[in-house]
Amino acid sequence: MSTLRKAVVVGGNRIPFARANGAYAMTSNLDMLTAALDGLVARFGLQDERLGEVAGGAVLKHSRDFNLTREAVLGSALSPETPAYDLQQACATGLEAILGLSDKIKLGRIDSAIAGGVDSASDAPIVVSEGLRHAVLELNRAKTLQQKLKAVSKLRPKDVTPVAPGTNEPRTGLSMGEHQALTTAQWNISREAQDELALASHRNLAEAYDRGFFDDLVTPYRGVTRDGNMRADTSLEKLASLRTVFGRQLGDRATMTAGNSTPLTDGASAVLLSSEDWAESHDLPILADIVDGEAAAVDFVHGKDGLLMAPVFAVARLLGRLGLTFEDIDYFEIHEAFAGTVLCHLAAWEDEEFCRERLGLDGALGKVDRAKLNVNGSSLAAGHPFAATGGRIVATLAKQLHERGTVDGRPARGLVSVCAAGGLGVAAVLEAR
Amino acid sequence: MSAPARGIETLELAEMPSLSRLYVAAARDAARKLVKKGTARGVLPAARHRVAGVRPDLGKMTEYQSLLGETKRDIAPAGYVHTLAFPAAMSVMGREDFPLPLLGMVHLENRVEYRLPVFYTDLLEVTAWAEGLAGHRAGTRVDLVVEVRHAGNDDVAWRGVSTYLAKGVYLPGLDRPGVNGAREEFRPPLPTALWRLSSETGREYAAVSGDVNPIHLSSISARALGMRRSIAHGMYTASRALAEVGPQKGDAFVWEVKFEAPVFLPARVCVNITDSGDSEGAWERSDFVGWGASSGRRHFVGRVERL
Fold it and tell me: Which residues of B touch A182 (CB under 8 A)?
């Protein structure tokens, strides 16, 4: 690692996140990703600049958007000679894009890059039924009139009903919320603890907006200036009044509400990464180093671990490799898919037996100081347009680290973790510049 | 092949019988069978039915794999082999001298040993017979045994034992066991999966399996046989559980299931699959159980174990 050059975060940009079927109901993934890129281009004067590479993706993606990121580049003010590629790792798409591009910068294959992510739960692709799809495909293959008639004759009235995408895990049929409800119950996380975390998220996000923290991270779009899901005036009483929506078969042990779960959200984000030389030669700031990252996956299908527990493993392995403990971390950015997800992660890291048996450690990994957790709010307040979340978190953390500067004579350090469908999780460590 | 027992006739069938024709014949004979119920003796036909030259159908196997959520491999899923071979057993049940009425039989249990992989290109021989006729507290039970071999190979590749209950049929000479103790109360574990079964499920499985028993096809046909709504095929639930155990089971395994409360369609079925490993941590078995999401009644329970 010591022979590699550094990859740094120059800055980020996103559009305010909006609840699904709200302000961005009529804008597509391509529209929003292009808007996020253009805002970043404008902020850092990158018009007509040929960047090393742009990578990004969307989780809910139409097949016509096979080259979504390249199309967004072509629609943006960047040089059309900037190459681009799509990637997708469910909710970890944005963070994985950042890590992959950082590695290319560290290796010297590229000097500059933008990692992006976008999702629209409003403009989601509607899928036709398997019956209709097979009939249309067969019709396509048919050569004679007889074959064509045979293909059409296989259609049944029920085949015409379209299928909207859901958040059900393909192998279990349980929605992400139902999965988390089981994990939340297994780790005995209380309703109150989840509501408190949600409240902190809204308050921290609102305070960050109020002090102007997001002025150079967020560009207004379609009349939206702040994240539409944010409720600065919410309270524990209000959160406590909401009915449970997930895990209701658990009876009294059901604790998850719309208040302590993220809503379906529309939005896009982009992060500008580069080598130190590139930033300096373009007279651009350097906010933070991308130090390292780690992906993990859990065997959730038959319940060995909870669906969203992979970051527990990713963080332990990453800190182990870097020789760090929680004491060395000044900011924890743990993606709030659900309040229960974050609290289960914290509980697992504090559990000696779990850390010994499952993480292979001598004892508990440690306790996360709650004063260092999601200090500028996270997904419970901002919302969670799946692939855009990684970019939101990294840009926010990089700016926070840069503002803090040093801690005890060393660069301020931040840890990011994002859980994802399919039992995936990705973690990263950043250091202030 | 094991040597045929003395006095057991082997009937060679020219081709695999059609289940729908067997059901029609069964319906036609229902009245006669009812009459026979009074006179039948507790003896099974001393015959094995054998069909040579059986080959899986790639199209049917593909439809089966799509419906049950099996990855489309070239090796036939254990449940597909069942649909391919079971008509031979049905033809035994449809014999004149079979002592129980075919219509209205309840599938109690199923046990399959999948010993050697069956590819869709393989030429197979299927042998089926009935054994284990015994009294049951609710009627008479019988095992239908089906063995599948690769042509020209004596080793059994796939062996299935399907236990059926003829409800309310009591044959002379068979003991009628009482209810031994109260059944233990079922407490559902946490689910690992949720199945949303539409009212189409019975017709869809009938289409891929050929099992067109009217109790599975529609509410109307089910009511004609005394069910309040159509019910899912037990083998659909067992086969789907098998598919969801996943690739860890390898190509050789035992798969067994007990069917309990029927799954009235449409239904939401909670499923729990729990894996166990050996001392090395390698997969050894998966236990599965399914229950009604709202009723909490157990529909099926079983296991898949390394062979």
Answer: 190-191
